[in-house]
Design goal:
α1 runs antiparallel to α2 and α1 packs antiparallel against α5. The protein starts with a helix and ends in a 9-residue tail after the last helix. The longest helix is centred in the N-terminal third of the chain and has 57 residues. By secondary structure, the chain is mainly α. It has a single domain, classed as de novo design (two linked rop proteins) (Up-down Bundle). Helix content is about 80%, strand content about 0%. The protein has 7 helices and no strands.
Length: about 200
């Protein structure tokens, strides 16, 4: 074999080894995204498990607020279904969008329940209700951290898959861009609170 043939063969082997290394790194990053979504899923399940208990405690005090309680249960059911679809495809923009919409609706329904609960001092003072509210708040905080971890992994994957020359392997091997998770909080909830002192 001539020297030129050896050079060409060496170059081809180097390209193949490089492509294998890039492919393996993209697979590793994709698996980290699935793991990060798994952490979100754990916290969502915890939240979904707390909600029926919260509604059950509230039922005793909010007999004539049945529509509010039913709205929470319905929103929870939709969120559970959306979470199942997202669990099956944690990198799917459609599944994550549906989950974000369902979580937004559930957050709104829970918010309305808490506003109604404020009008009932006995319910606010109920030890079980206070405990469940604290657990729900703790779970929301954990969800926030889990979403951030997911977004960090998605960003790392997207950066790797979009940079030349790695994007060649990403496109040839079918690695799509992974969507970022948005907060399920509304713009109003994210706005800074207005503090006003009366004169």
């Amino acid at each position: 074999m001539s020297a030129t043939a050896w050079i060409v063969l060496g170059f081809a082997v180097a390209v193949v080894l490089w492509a294998i290394a890039v492919y393996n790194r993209l697979v590793q990053l994709r698996n980290r995204i699935a793991n990060a979504f798994g952490q979100i899923d754990v916290q969502l399940k915890r939240r979904y498990d707390l909600i029926p208990n919260l509604v059950e405690v509230a039922k005793g005090y909010l007999a004539h607020e049945a529509a509010t309680l039913e709205a929470v249960i319905k929103a929870r059911g939709q969120a559970v279904n959306a979470a199942g679809a997202a669990r099956a495809a944690p990198a799917s923009a459609n599944a994550l969008g549906a989950l974000a919409a369902a979580e937004g609706a559930l957050g709104g329904a829970l918010g309305r329940l808490m506003v109604v609960a404020e009008a009932y001092p006995d319910l606010k003072a109920d030890a079980t209700m206070q405990s469940l509210s604290e657990e729900l708040t703790s779970t929301e905080n954990r969800l926030g951290f889990a979403r951030q971890a997911y977004n960090d992994q998605a960003l790392e994957f997207n950066d790797k898959a979009a940079q030349f020359p790695d994007l060649i392997v990403a496109r040839l091997m079918g690695f799509p861009t992974v969507p970022m998770l948005e907060s399920t909080r509304s713009e109003e909830e994210r706005a800074a609170p207005q503090v006003r002192f009366s004169p």
